[in-house]
Amino acid sequence: MVDFFQSLTLIEMTAYALQALLIMIAFAIVIHKNNGTIVILIASFSLVTASLYVINNAPDVAIAEVAIGSAIIPLIYVISISRQREFIVLDKAMDDFIIHDNTFTGVGYILLKRFSDFYHLELNITNDPMYYKDTVSRDQVLTEQTNVDLIITKDPQKEDGYVLKGKASNILMSKLEEMVKDYDNIRLIKFKDRDLGE
Amino acid sequence: MSRKILLVAMFAVLFGVFATSMIELETLFNTYGKTYFLEHGYAETGASNLVTAILLDYRLFDSLFEAGILLIAVSGVIWISKHDVEEKNAKFMIDKYKTPDLFITFARLVYPLMLAFGFYVIINGHISPGGGFQGGAIVATAILILYYIDANKETNIGLIVTVEKILYLLIVLMASISIITQGAFFTNFFNPSADADLKAIYLVLLNVLIGFKVALGLWTIFTAFLKEGR
Amino acid sequence: MNPILTFIVILIGFYGLATSNNIIKSVFSVTIIESGVILLFLNLGNLEGGAIPILNDQVSYIVDPLPQALMITTIVIGSTVTALALMLCIKIFHHYGTVEWKEVLGRKDVKS
Question: The whole model's pTM is what?
Answer without folding.
Answer: 0.87
